[in-house]
């Protein structure tokens, strides 16, 4: 039986040198119209904001969370990578972490699909993209945001979501930070290859801004060879890519590279943000 495992995101805090940081951001409510089969409803999405002091406008990083991992992470748990927020605030960059429908305290249903067939995968991504659409609509009215300096980022499913959104909305971001991105695990195969590869190919073909891929060896969701295929496929399709693949140590899950191994990649992210004019 094919195990339909999806990519889990588990981020509460990280960056050990920032362990004494206390600021955990402020909670926002993002309005959204939830389009149902028979009627639409007005809901709100919970989001956490880290904003530098002052009126701005400030460069902004949007962080997209991953899945519940088949229930490993409770749907009502708010993802708040406060270490990442502290890191960005020191550069006078804001961080916004929207919770998609049905996650954290956001309204609506968590319906991003746990399936390996191409139709179900496409429907799940489209469903997730609608929450990101609502986030961008909200930001249009926010004077503190520099709309010309937005970077999309995300971990696991959130990394893939960032790539797909930026490729379909050329003016939405000046760059993409993809941490361990993928929509489904290696157990999901289409035509004897990872079901993620068509998404990387399509994103690379359409993408008009640079991307930084950060992965760790020994990821439980995709083999090292698969991760290398992600990068090769994206780049061969036309994507402007910097790819970093870190060895975290024996018996260490490569999927934890975002929340636990900042000291390996923070220099790369520094350079990426600087090159994109974020600070």
TrEMBL record:
Renumbered to this chain, the signal peptide range is 1-21
Which organism encodes this protein? Photobacterium proteolyticum
Task: Fetch the Pfam families from UniProt.
Answer: DLH (PF01738)
**Name the record gives this protein:** Dienelactone hydrolase domain-containing protein
- PANTHER family documented for this protein: DIENELACTONE HYDROLASE DOMAIN-CONTAINING PROTEIN-RELATED, POLYKETIDE TRANSFERASE AF380
Keyword annotations from UniProtKB, A to Z: Hydrolase, Signal
Do the record's keywords include Hydrolase?
yes
Q: What InterPro entries does the database record attribute to this sequence?
A: AB_hydrolase_fold, Dienelactn_hydro, FrsA_esterase
Annotated Dienelactone hydrolase domain ranges read: 122-247
**Looking at the keywords, is Signal present?**
yes
Any GO molecular function: carboxylic ester hydrolase activity
């Amino acid at each position: 039986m094919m195990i339909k495992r999806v990519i889990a995101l588990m981020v509460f805090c990280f960056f050990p040198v920032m362990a004494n940081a206390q600021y955990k951001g402020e909670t926002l409510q993002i309005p959204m119209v939830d389009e149902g089969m028979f009627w639409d409803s007005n809901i709100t999405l919970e989001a956490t904001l880290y904003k530098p002091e002052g009126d701005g406008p400030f460069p902004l990083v949007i962080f997209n969370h991953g899945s519940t991992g088949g229930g490993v992470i409770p749907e009502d748990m708010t993802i708040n990578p406060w270490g990442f927020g502290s890191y960005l605030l020191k550069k006078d960059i804001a961080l916004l972490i929207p919770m998609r429908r049905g996650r954290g305290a956001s309204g609506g249903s968590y319906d991003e699909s746990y399936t390996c067939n191409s139709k179900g995968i496409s429907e799940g991504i489209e469903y997730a993209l609608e929450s990101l659409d609502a986030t961008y609509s909200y930001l249009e009215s926010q004077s503190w945001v520099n709309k010309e300096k937005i970077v999309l980022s995300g971990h696991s499913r959130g990394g893939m979501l960032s790539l797909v959104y930026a490729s379909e909305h050329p003016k939405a971001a000046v760059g993409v930070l993809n941490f361990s991105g993928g929509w489904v695990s290696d157990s999901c195969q289409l035509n004897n290859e990872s079901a993620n590869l068509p998404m990387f190919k399509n994103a690379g073909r359409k993408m008009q801004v640079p991307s930084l891929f950060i992965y760790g060896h020994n990821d439980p969701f995709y083999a090292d060879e698969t991760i290398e295929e992600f990068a090769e496929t994206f780049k061969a399709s036309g994507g402007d890519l910097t790819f970093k693949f870190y060895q975290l140590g024996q018996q260490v899950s490569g999927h934890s590279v975002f929340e636990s191994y900042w000291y390996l990649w923070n220099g790369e992210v520094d350079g990426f943000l600087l090159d994109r004019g974020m600070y």
